[in-house]
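Re: the request from the purification team.
They wanted to know what the chain is likely to look like in 3D before they choose a buffer screen. I agreed to run a prediction and write the result into the notebook, where they can find it.
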Amino acid sequence: MAESASDFHRGDMNITEQVRTFHMFNGLTKWGSLVMATLITLLTLWFCTGAGFVGAAVSAFVLFALGVVFLRDKPQDAH
């Protein structure tokens, strides 16, 4: 039989799956945004400017490399 609402005790529920889903969603959003920005930069510079493929590829690579440096997970401070 289902427990009543009065049986709820704050902080007793196991939330590991919710935490993993939250972290996975944030990671996919972060890295997916970087990939999309890199792809948009590559295609825009390649087809809409005089940079050509090599200039666009170099710019996209630099953007991707900087994105990886700034978006990677930082180590947590020990308290």
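For the purification team: The chain has two helices and no strands.
Please add any questions underneath this entry.
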